[in-house]
Amino acid sequence: MTTVNLLDFDLEGLTAFCERLGEKRFRAVQLFRWIHQKGASSFDQMTDLARSLREKLPGVCHVTALPVLSRQDSADGTIKWLFDVGGGNAVETVFIPEDDRGTLCVSSQAGCAVGCRFCSTGHQGFSRNLTAGEIVAQLWHAEHFLRQHLCKSERVITNVVMMGMGEPLQNYNALVPALRVMLSDHGYGLSRRRVTVSTSGVVPMMDRLGQDCPVALAVSLHAPNDVLRESLVPLNRKYPLAELLDACLRYLPSAPRDFITFEYCMLDGVNDQPEHARQLLTLLKGHGGRGVPCKINLIPFNPFPDSGLHCSPRAVVLQFGKMLNDGGIVTTVRKTRGDDIDAACGQLAGDVLDRTNAANRLAERRRGAAQPIRIVKISKEGQV
Ligand code: SAH
Ligand code: SF4
Q1: Are residues 48 and 76 in the same domain?
Q2: Does residue 31's CB lie within 6 angstroms of at least one atom of ligand 2?
Q3: What is the domain range of residue 11?
Q4: What's the confidence (pLDDT) of residue 323?
Q5: Which of 112, 199, 265, 309 to mutate to test the pocket of ligand 2 (most atoms within 8 A of CB)?
Q6: Cβ of 112 below 6 Å from ligand 2
Q7: In whole angstroms, what is the distance from residue 136 CA to residue 357 CA?
Q8: Do 124 and 54 sit in the same domain of this protein?
Q9: How far is the CA of 271 from the centre of ligand 1 (A)?
Q10: What pLDDT band is residue 343 in, cutting at 50, 70 and 90?
Q11: pLDDT attached to residue 345
Q12: Residue 335: predicted pLDDT
C-alpha cells in the first residue's frame, strides 16, 4: 500500500487528512509543528500525540526527506546540496549565510521548459515538476541540518528565494502549498516579505499568486525591448513586456513589498549597452503613465559550456548600474568573489545539475564512491 508523505501537505491539507482518519483538527497542528518546527520524521518522537494515533500513523503516512546526493561546504559558510528526485534527476539547493540573514535558494522543477538562452537549467530541458513535498523537503532538510551543524536551537533560515532550478509559476499547484508551509506560524513562520518567487513572466500565474498567496516578487527581465527579450527569454513571445509590466502593476497592491525586483543578467555586447540602460529607464519609468515601482538587480552572467555568451566586463556592469541609479531606479549589482561562482543563486552549476551527471553520481554513491567536495564561492548583493 502506498502511504502519504506528510511533507506534501500544508496545514489545511494536513487537517483534512487528520479528519479523514477520524482525528480532531488540533492533531494536525501538533503533527505539523513536530515535522516542521522540530524536524521530526518518526512518529515515536511525537510524545504529546495519543499512543493510539502514533500507532495508527505509520500504516497510512510517513515523513520522508529527499536523498542527498552530495553536500558541498565552502569556507565562507555557503552550503550546497544536490538532492536526488528519482529517475536520474537531481535538483540543487543553496544556503547563503549573511550577517543579518540566512537565505535558502530553492528549486521548483527538475529542469525547466522556458529555455532561456543564458541559463544552464534551460539548456537541459524539462524533466518534471517537483511535488509540494519535494519543494518543502529542501527547506526541511536544510533548516534542521543547519540547526544541528551550527548548534542553534532557533531558526537559521530567515529568507527563501525560489531562484533555484525551474520556473516556479509553471508549477503553481505545488508551489502554493509549499509557500504556505513556509509562511505558516506553525511551520517555518517566514514573513511574506522574506519569501521571494522569481519568475520569467508567466503572466496569468502572477495574477493568481497575487490573489492566492502574495509574497515578494522578482521578475527576470533581462532586456528593455521585446525583440531582444524574445531572443533571450522565449516566453516573451507569449507574454510580451507590456503585458508583463501590467501584471507587475496588478500584483503590487497585494504584494508585501511596495516594489517589484527586476533581475537583469549582464551579457557582454547583448543587453549591456548604454542604449539598453536608457531604454530600460524609459520603459520602467514610463509604463502605464506613472511607471512601475521597482528595484533592479544586475546579475553578472555565469558562463557555462556551449552557451556562446560572455559576462559583461566589470566596468560595463558598473557603468550600466550607475546609469540606472542616476536615472532614478535603485540598482544593485551582485558582486562575485573569485571567478568560480557556481553557487550563485540564479545559475545553479550546470555541470552538477546535468541529468546524466546526476545519474552517474547516484550510481557512484550506490557503489560507495566518495563524493567530490568542491569549494563553492558565493556572490553577494552590493550597491553599485
Ligand atoms: N525561473 C525563474 C527562477 C529561477 S532562475 C526565473 O527565471 O526567474 C533565477 C535567476 O537566475 C533568474 O533571474 C535567471 O534569469 C537568472 N539566471 C539564470 N541563468 C543565469 C546565468 N547563467 N547567469 C546569471 N543569472 C542567471
Ligand atoms: Fe527556466 Fe528561469 Fe532558467 Fe529561464 S532562467 S530557463 S525560466 S530557470
Answers
A1: no
A2: no
A3: 4-62
A4: 98
A5: 112
A6: yes
A7: 24
A8: no
A9: 15
A10: low
A11: 43
A12: 60
Q: How many CB atoms lie within 10 A of CB 239?
A: 18
Q: What is the pLDDT of residue 371?
A: 33
Model confidence over 18-51: pLDDT tens digits? 999 999 999 999 999 999 999 999 999 999 999 9
Q: What does the pLDDT read at residue 368?
A: 35
Half-sphere exposure of 259 (CA within 13 A, CB side): 14
- Establish whether residue 301 lines the binding site of ligand 1, counting it when its CB lies within 6 angstroms of any ligand atom: yes
CA distance 129 to 178: 13
What burial class does residue 129 get, using C-beta atoms within 10 Å of its C-beta: 0-12 exposed, 13-18 middle, 19+ buried? buried
User: How close is the Cα of 23 to the center of ligand 1, in Å?
Assistant: 44
Ligand 2 centre distance from Cα of residue 304 (Å): 14
Assess contact for 346 and 311: CB atoms under 8 A: no
Q: Report pLDDT for 306.
A: 87
Q: What is the CATH number of the domain that holds 306?
A: 3.20.20.70
Please tell me the predicted confidence (pLDDT) of residue 334.
83
265 burial type by CB count under 10 A (0-12 exposed, 13-18 middle, 19+ buried) = buried
Marked catalytic residue, from 23, 92, 143, 167? 92
